Amino acid sequence: MGRRGRRRGGVRLQALAAGAMLLVLTACGGGESAGGGTGGQGPAAQGGGSQGNAASQAVVTILPKDGAESVATSGALKVTAAQGKLTTVTVADSKGTEVEGRIAADGASWSPTAHLAAGTQYKVHAIAKDAEGRESAKDTTFTTLVPKNTFIGHYTPEHGSTVGVGMPVSINFTRGITDPEAVEKAIKVTAVPAVRIEGHWFGNDRLDFRPENYWAAGTKVTVELNLDGVEGRPGVYGKQKKTVSFTIGRRQVSTVDASAKTMKIERDGKIIKTLPITAGAPSTTTYNGQMVISEKYKVTRMNGATVGFGGEYDIKDVPHAMRLSTSGTFVHGNYWASAGTFGSANVSHGCVGLQDARGAGDSSMPAAWFYDSSIIGDVVVVKNSKDKQIKPDNGLNGWNMDWSEWIA
What we know:
The chain has helices at 2-29, 43-46, 48-52, 180-185, 366-373, 403-406, and strands at residues 59-63, 78-82, 85-93, 101-103, 109-112, 121-129, 135-143, 149-151, 153-156, 162-163, 169-173, 187-192, 198-202, 206-210, 220-226, 231-233, 236-238, 241-248, 252-257, 262-267, 270-276, 289-292, 295-303, 314-323, 330-334, 352-355, 379-383.
């Protein structure tokens, strides 16, 4: 009995030892029982445990390299992804202002849609995902160049002003522009209510914007000058970033009939007054065409020598003068001609004259009334003069160019 008992106890001890070894092997070897079933579907069997912790295969590349300096404001910035697709790209300056950009349809690249500002530090943050959805991120910093030569644009009308329906946006640059496309792309002109607005270059230093027809009364116009960093000509960069807004006032269009020697003032579709005038004499006729009032002077000096007439006249106190052209065409008061001249004879050197009093102090005079009733941007149309049509770039007079040519 005792021997048999000892043998049975030995068998039990051997069985327990074998079971213990099996348990150790199972726990360390990842057999079927560790997967929770007979199908081998546990994480180790699938390889999911090591896959979930694997690095993303996506590789993000940012140009320029981290820490780069004197980076070009155009053409240098680009973000790409290999073995994956870009999902997020943000580029911002130190103030948090973001650079607009676009991820390509295939997710392989991102490019800015506008130029960068000069002398500015930018931070780039980009994320891409690989085929398994794993993310890879990259962050860099770079600084754009500081230009030695710069330009700005002198613009009209002034911010916050109310102007007439003929007022274009006119920008004169301090340096001749050899890349007009880049400069024009950096200027945005919008209106409320919305209307199509297009730019036209006069030479290489002036850019005007206007709609096809006169602005509607009450229109709000906004001009965004994003010239900072634009390379307008080789080595010459814009340094201007500004937003300008103005309002279109009531509609006033005055028509001068040089033959009838009258001027009819139309306000919001109604003729509110007809005034007798004197236009250019037969040897110094007045230009025909649509002209925009660009300046107003209650009293100013007019010297014929400044517009090619030698010493024919030099009047130091011309009253109620409003400029219509760069070459010297004005609507102005005239106190030196007899009252009977207005409406009966053309005697000027090309300007449109209205009866006035010396010193511009008599508000009852026709010139004073018209001056007080007009604002910069109002239109004065001259017809039936024995002269040519004024050129579109002689003053703010782009309305004398057909729309098809304007947008060509």
